[in-house]
Specification:
Elements: H1 2-8, E1 11-17, H2 24-35, E2 42-48, H3 55-65, E3 69-74, H4 80-90, E4 95-98, H5 110-118, E5 123-127, H6 135-151, E6 163-166, H7 167-175, H8 183-189, E7 194-198, H9 218-231, H10 235-261, H11 267-303, E8 310-314
Parallel strand pairs: 1-2, 1-4, 2-3, 5-7
Antiparallel strand pairs: 3-8, 4-6, 5-6
Helix pairs in contact: 6-9, 10-11
């Protein structure tokens, strides 16, 4: 009976929630309004990521009224990517769509992604061009460029959670044991045929969810970029090693020049020498921190702790 059920479900919608009681009800009705027009067998998987407000209670009330809803409850907040992976473990649809529970994306854009998947793509990702960019948004663009240079993976819609996947890609993702901070980059590494689609921005002043945009911390953006780059390969270490070699070489040449010229022997020479020492020390500190990042990731992996723990599945 379960195999038959797997065959008839065409679409799975995964929505991770964390303290989103203010958007849960509206998001459900907008999703229901969109999906009911698609003429497909569907299911909605709500993942409660350890919410401590009324989110879970509201989701249970919706489940009592709609048998298409499945609730996956995690024992604590494991992070958004872990919540999405937990939803993947329960999804049965031929196409799986993820969307944020805080309504920073529009459910009305889902049909566009599904049409793109039907054209032969494995993954369809949405992204929006924000004309009014804050400092954090600009830092986000810089971090995207750095990640592209270090990994070769250019993803415009990294911050957008609205994506559609073929179930075959979901199966590949579930085989990966690493704790990735970016499912889109992992999908690119798997070699999936991916396309990014610029979505309609809509009227952000009149739509409740889109006005609840998350505030970005510039420091957090760069921290995530470095962590993500170290997650995807050893290129950052190679860059630091190369930079260290260049700085060391320049320090040697500068020292030889000052000794040979005999021009800087007093206070000025002390300043120049101190500057060279500080440059070398900064490179050493940065390199040590980067190596520590890799060691911490190795330590986390060998601990063998699960990426997430499901406390309850309500279906």
């Amino acid at each position: 009976m379960e195999e038959i059920l797997d065959e008839v479900i065409d679409l799975s919608i995964i929505v991770p929630f964390f303290n989103d009681e203010g958007t849960a009800i509206e998001l459900y009705f907008r999703l229901n309004n969109v999906i009911s027009r698609l003429n497909k067998a569907w299911e909605i998987i709500f993942v409660d990521n350890g919410s401590d407000d009324r989110t879970l209670l509201l989701l249970k009330e919706l489940r009592e009224k709609d048998e298409h809803i499945k609730i996956v409850r995690l024992i604590k907040n494991f992070g958004e990517n872990a919540a999405i992976m937990a939803g993947f473990s329960q999804a049965k649809g031929k196409v799986v769509v993820t969307i944020a529970g805080d309504m920073t994306e529009r459910p009305e854009d889902i049909p566009c992604l599904i049409e793109t998947i039907d054209k032969g793509y494995d993954v369809a990702s949405g992204y929006r061009v924000n004309t009014k960019q804050s400092i954090a948004d600009k830092m986000d663009r810089i971090s995207d460029w750095l990640i592209f240079k270090m990994t070769g993976m250019r993803i415009e819609g990294y911050a957008c959670r609205l994506r559609a996947y073929r179930h075959s890609i979901i199966n590949l993702l579930k085989q990966c044991r690493e704790r990735t901070q970016s499912i889109p980059h992992l999908v690119c590494w798997l070699g999936a045929k991916t396309i990014e689609i610029e979505l309609n921005t809509g009227d952000k002043d009149t739509e409740t969810g889109l006005s609840l945009q998350r505030k970005k911390n510039p420091c957090a953006v760069m921290k995530n970029a470095l962590s993500l780059a170290s997650n995807l390969g050893v290129t950052p270490i190679r860059i630091v090693c190369l930079a260290g070699a260049w700085v060391g070489g320049l320090g040697i040449l500068a020292s030889m020049f000052f000794i040979a010229s005999g021009l800087f022997v007093d206070y000025c020479g002390l300043n120049v020498g101190l500057g060279i020492v500080l440059i070398v020390l900064s490179m050493q500190l940065f390199g040590g921190a980067l190596i520590g990042e890799y060691i911490a990731k190795i330590y986390t992996q060998i601990q063998g702790r699960p990426y997430y723990i499901i406390e309850e599945v309500i279906e």
